[in-house]
Structure formats: C-alpha cells, structure tokens
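Workshop exercise sheet. Pairs work together: one partner reads the sequence aloud, the other fills in the structure field after running the prediction. Swap roles for the next sheet.
Pair: D.N. / O.F.
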Amino acid sequence: MTKPRVLFIASLAASIAGCAVGPNYKTPALPPAAGYGVADQPAEVGPQLVSGMAVAHDWWRAFGSDDLNDLVDEALKHNPTIDQARATLRAAREATKAQRGAYFPSIEASIQPTREQFAKDLASPTESGQSLYTLTTSQVSVSYTPDVFGANRRAVENLAALEEAQRFELEAARQTIAANVVLAAIQDAALRAQVAAAKTVIDDQRRTLESFRRQHDLGQTSKADLAAQTALLAQAETTLPPLEKAFEINRDLLASLVGRTPGEPVAATFTLDALTLPDALPLSLPGDLVRQRPDVRAAEAQLHAASAAIGVAVAARLPNINLAAAAGSAPLDVGISLANSATFWSLAGTLTQPIFEGGTLLHHERGARAEFEAAAAQYRATVIAAFQNTADTVHALRADAKGSLAAQSSADASDRSLAIARRQLGLGDVSILTVLTAEQADAQARLALAQTRAAQYSDAVALFQALGGGWWNAPAGASGEKTKP
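Structure field:
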C-alpha cells in the first residue's frame, strides 16, 4: 500500500472518529438587562453594598463569633446531609469513569475443562475414536466497538455533566448547612433576648398588680381597674411559653445541624451583643452571579447532560460496528496446548443497522429533545429566581436596617423616659405605677430592637447565600470538592 493511501485512510478514520452526532453544548446567554433593579442603588442606612467585592469562602466569620465559627466548622464535618452528597458525587464520578471504559477493547480469558462420554453407538468426535475423553477449551477473546458516530463520547459527556451537577449539589448542601447554622445561632440569640424581655414585662405586670391590690385594699382603685390589670398580667404570661418552646426547638435544631441528637446538646450560647454586622457587604456583578450560585451551575450542568443525551439517542439510530477476535486451544487433556492440532482462532466484524423498531428509537430521540427544552426552561427559571432572590435580599437588608434604626431610637427614648420616671419617683413626684409603666414600655422597646437586629443579621446571611457563598475563593482542598467558576 502506498504512503498517500495510508495517510488518506488514517485521516479518514480520524475524521470519522472525531465526528459526534447531536448538538454541541453552548453556555446559555444571560437574560436581557440582567440585574437587581433598584437594589443596585446605594443604601441610605445600614451596611453598604460594594459591587464586585469578593465573597469570602468562610463568610460566617464576618459575624465575629469564635463559638459560631467552631459550630459551622463542626457542622461541615459531621452533618449527614453533606456526607450523603459527597457519597452521591463519588458514585457519579465512578459512573463517568466506567463509561469511559467503552473507549477501549474488551478482553476476556476463559478455560473450560470437560469430561465427556459418548454413546458407543454414536460416532466419537475425537480423531482417535475414543468415546470417553477429557477436553480442555481455553481461549482469549477480544471485542471492540469503534465510537464511529460519537455515541460513547456523548454518553460520557452526559455522565460527566451529571457528575458536575452533583458536585454543585454538594456545594449547595454545604452552603445551606452553613447558613442554617448561622441562622439558628442568630435565632438562639434573638430568642434569649425575647425570653428575657418577656420575663421582664411579666415581672413588671406582677408588681403593678400588687400595687393595684394594695391601692384597692385602701379604697383608691376600683374592682374594674384591678380586673383590668389582672387581665394584662395574664396576657403577658401567655407570651412566654411560645418563646420558650421556640427556644428549645431551636436548640435541638442546632444539635441536629452539627450531626448530634438532642441528647448531645450544643454547649455554645449566643447573644446579639456578641455578634457583629459588617459595615460593608459584597454584591456580585450580574455576570458573576450565574457563575457563582451552585443552584444555577447545577441547572446548567443538567442542561448540558440533556444536550448530550440527544446525541446518544441520535447515535442509536445509526449503524454500529463491532470487531471481535478469539484464539485458544482445545486439547484432549487437562491443561493448555500450543500444538497446531489443538489451537483455533477467529476474526469477525459485525455491522448493525436498526431498520424497524416500532418507532422506539425515533421517539427516544424526540423525548431527549423535549427533555432538553425542559432543562433549558428550568435553567432560565433558576437564573431568574437567582436574580430575584438576590434583589429581594438586598431590599430586606435595607428595609430592616431602617427598622433597626427606628427600633434603636425607640429603645433610647424608652431608656430616657424610664430614667426620668425613676428620678421623679425618688423625688416623690410620681407613683410607682408610672415607673412600672415606663419599665414595661422599655422592655417592649428592647424586644422590638432584638427582633430587628436579628432580622438584620439574618438578611446578611441570606445575602451571602444568595451570592453563592464564596466557594470559588476557598483554598485548594478546603471543601474536598472544588470547581472554579
């Protein structure tokens, strides 16, 4: 064979091998005018949002609590949801590697010793005519299916995309667990403050009721006034059990998030004063958001997998080539013989073309294309939801910052009012009831302040999570599984 002909055949084989049916995946474009709307405008009060500011991979450290940092680190190590996601990712990775094995020939070896006796009335298959003999058949078989139309390439692409989706499911699980731990810690601090405020109000109401009773005994108040104060005390007492219940349930949640049962309670306690809110918070650029959010990346990987599945379905309708070879020996003895009389070999090639499958293959392809359209719609919905979620979080952060400022002003005013009432009581200008009323108002203001501060902290957590959690900034090996945007 001449050299030009060899080169032609080689180039033809390479071009066939490089052909893969089905669409080549392309990353979808961003929606037109992708952005956060009015959320892009500067904040009037509260933390300033810095556009393009890096999101730390350990963003929870921004709250300045060592106990919180330790709790999140423990949860990321021991939470069973993360362990499950890691195991599922390993399974997806092994499935991808297993499919890549189809690129290579399959080689098998076998040996089959048999002891047979033919009826003497029948002709013996042996050359010597023996009716009782031992036959040992041993062979090596090689089979290979060239990936002519790229069916296996698309199958590997499909599984690799599903592996990628699972990798981002793992990252989403890590970010969700971290956010839930921080939110539970904030709730722990808020409920502590609310329980303390509720107890203060109840104590003040009890003292007020005792004062009313003394005045009633002296004839200075009516039964109606006494009954009204009794009702106020009962109303205040009803607020405490729900808060205590929520507090205990939240403590159980903290234990479960770090992989413990309620029988192994978390020792760490949190207060709002022990947590800090950063003066500046990040706000990712719109183009970066879709590359950073694990849910968007997982949805894109699912879209990629659906695109590759179309190629698998198309290739199933095209011709398929299988090459097979076998060689071995079958001596009339136990063992392996290389004698010419005992050896055998075979070469075979099979070309298969589906002709009629009752429309099965056609409908599989149409179904794959419909699945791709569904995945594309799901991806668009996920992207839109990501921008909405981020914008909503920014709105909440700014609204709660204003609410916290108003609550702080109310608490300061209540403090001043209580201080004045106590000075007047010392001078004999007002009664104890005036002071008790001021104390109740101060406790209510403190309760409102605790709620708004907790809301601000929770909004900051939601923002970090909405921006993707900074996983791409983690050092190599920090999470065990890492993929750059």
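Discussion prompt: The beta strands are 48-51, 106-117, 132-144, 280-283, 320-329, 343-352. What would you look at next?
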